[in-house]
Amino acid sequence: LPTLYQIYPVGDTSTSSATTSAYFSSQAMAAVAFCSASYGNLTACQLLANLCTLQLQRLVNQNVRSGSACAEFINLESQRTSSRPGFASWAANMPWLYYGSQQASLVLADTSLTATYASGSTLNLYLGTYSLSGQFQGFQNASATNQLQLCKDTLAVMQAAFRFGTTYLQEVNIFFYDETDGGIPKLLPVPVLNTALLDSTNTLVNTQTSNTNWQLTRRFFLVDNVAGKTSLTDQVRYAQSIQLTITPQGTTQAGLIYPPLLTITYADLKASKYYGTGASVKVKPHTCLGIFVSFSVAYKQTSSTSSQFTENLRIAMGVLSAVGFCYAVLRTWFWARRAGVLSLDAVLVFKLLAYSASAFANAFFITIFGIAFYQLVMYKNQGIFMLTLPSDDTFLLSYLASATVLKFIDLVHIFAMQCTVDIYLIDWERPSQPSAAAQSTTSYFYPPKEHLEKGDLLSGRLPDVEIQKPTNTPVSNGVSGTGVPIWRTVLVANEWNEIQACRKTYPTFTIFVAMLILGVIGIENIASRDPFVSLSTNPLRYNSPSNPVFRLALIIVVFGFLGFFEIAFRVLVWERFFTDDLRNFADLCSVVNISVFVLAQRNFGYYIHGHSPAGRADVNLPGIVSILSSVQCDAIPRRGISPESDDHTYLMALPSGLYSSLERLLAPARNTSGAMNMSSFLSHETGQAVNRFLIGFISRDHPNGLHYRIVRRKPLENILDGEFDDTSSEGLFYIDDGNSFGDVLFYGNELSLFIFDTLLFALINHLSNSLILSGVLTWAFTTILAELRAHLDDGNNNPEESNGTGENLNNKNFHKQRRIGGISECGTRSHHAHTDTANKIAKTNCQTAAKHGESGQEPRFRIRQECGRGQLLTVCRRSQRVQAAETVRYLFIYCQFTGKVKMDIK
């Protein structure tokens, strides 16, 4: 009878490494004999059931006499002809060890449990314990005695495992304690899933994913240091992992659960392997073994609930993706109209893919946030237990990673579009006549005039204003005769670069405050698997691990709240009462008499009308003061294209002939490869020709018949951000809210940038579970993107940007930007002159402005100190008119341009 006495390693399907147990040799045959029908000794039957459990309830050779203790037990059980009432698998006068022919799926779907459980209820689990020799030791409450946990801890920590809804990770017959509606207590059996059980085909059936072939049992042990003895203890078996799985019946049966399932995984400790040959193993029962041992309580969805969740997820993703694709097709159609693409080509397909990536990223983002937020709110607020977390959250990582990658593709597309736009700076200034060398200062007085037209100011008709022309100096003589000065155009180009990476939110502030809210305040603790909300953790109590779905929901909520707060504060407070960088740029264009013509696509762009109402901008300080005074008093025409309108920023749907005309003007300056040749550009006076062409088009005085109308967009066009009107023969200038040209800057793409920051932070946090690492990497990535955006723009040297004198403005020196922390700080002005000529012009004009400002009669502005190197220039502003007040910022652009003086506007 050697096989009856043998102990097999866990998971070993062969008999070559079996160990003959001294205890089995002395007890097995006696237990078989006295458990037979002839004697019917129940204690002997309990001993035989214990021996079978120590043999891991193997069913191999179950039809062979003396094949194993389990074979003997099954043989004796079959001799009993009756069973316990209500339990078909429990033979009379025998221990209940196997569920027999009952399928595990039916056992686990039993609905006889009638107790209703709420979050925080105690899960009463009772253990019927037997000694190794078969004596019944009585019932023990597992939630009170913690017998299932080998590694002991504080009582509060161990008892947390049996608090209902708490996901816990930390020789016995088990019964489940259930109290019926009538208040009568009864014991209901809890099935045990032994992962080391071998069936009759020598297969580990209990490790299979499907529960169809599972063989459920009723008995298990925690530590076995008896069966492995020969003379000394050669091996010890222990329960390496114990998991109690609880499955709710579903949302229609709130608070009801199916029978819990106790899953046991055993492991061996061999003396020859861990302690050396001939050594013995000594282990005290119910103590931590110094190796990995876990006890956990998990809550699982039913297969139908899990399938329904997956189906709902796919439906939501499919519907939103379909809507997103339709929107991508619409955006591609708008782009084709704007770009003048009439047939299907590779570029059009690429645009469709790029817009689809953006739409799918948004669809994924909305879907995973909706599901995560729903799970968080419903799980934390359920009074009666009915909702569990998804059994598998791998869907979260796949969708989150996909959304992040797709949104990054969208950003690359945005970068490519922004860095390939054509920008034309239209200079409306007319060359001034140089004064006589001997004339030091000439004063002109003009009587007041009630009605002035655009261009009247500074051309001989000013309302009671004295204009003083400064004496020619060696420096001014050295640069005289150059036509219209370039400093205004350079200033506008630099200002444009300053606002390239300006955003509606501040990523550094957003990331830092999000880390503060989540980590320091403790919002991230809400993501625990506990069914209640807590902002802090107690080291003396058990703290459930966080759930990645909950963490995602909290991260998006916190980022969304911060983004909404920042944008609302910027739009409602900062831009209204302090400074608006885009409108300031438009005001600057009006002050310096330069318009910005942005050609985003072939037939579409943005226009900032900077034609000064006074007609001139290259004047001294009293002239600027006079202009501002006239603006305040409405004594000059308004700043729009139409003299009666203040609308000065537009979206342009251009006639198809405009782009062709520009290409013809630029053709002489291109080389054989199509690139712009700078020397040709200057020698052929292409810059002046382009400037005159655009002035004629804007002034509606173009000889080629290129015309446009000023209209307002229809509501549907505003919603869809597209145009439906045909502009092949006549263009349309759409009046906007003043900052539509932000679409070619970071400012107008804040939503895409912000969603990418949020997705990147959430993805890194999901992979690392570290707020610090997520914050640092996200901040570094956004910084790199901002710097890359600035670098790509600096390298875009298109000589089309001209001041009308043929001088190129896109020299890298003029486009060099100064940034703080890698992110453009809106409102920071740091203009630098990079040529000796620019320095001389700025210094001369600055000193002249200071000289005339001190002797001027206008009380609205006062210079406290002379503007010079390293000195402070203070201007007191009393004007209440917003339009005039905003333009005062750029009064002393000469001094500011040099970077050698500071300006303080009060």
From TrEMBL:
Pfam families: Meckelin. The chain crosses the membrane at residues 315-336, 348-376, 396-416, 509-528, 548-573. InterPro entries: Meckelin. GO terms for biological process: cilium assembly. GO terms for cellular component: MKS complex. Keywords: Membrane, Transmembrane, Transmembrane helix. It comes from the Eukaryota. This is Meckelin. It comes from Schistocephalus solidus (Tapeworm).
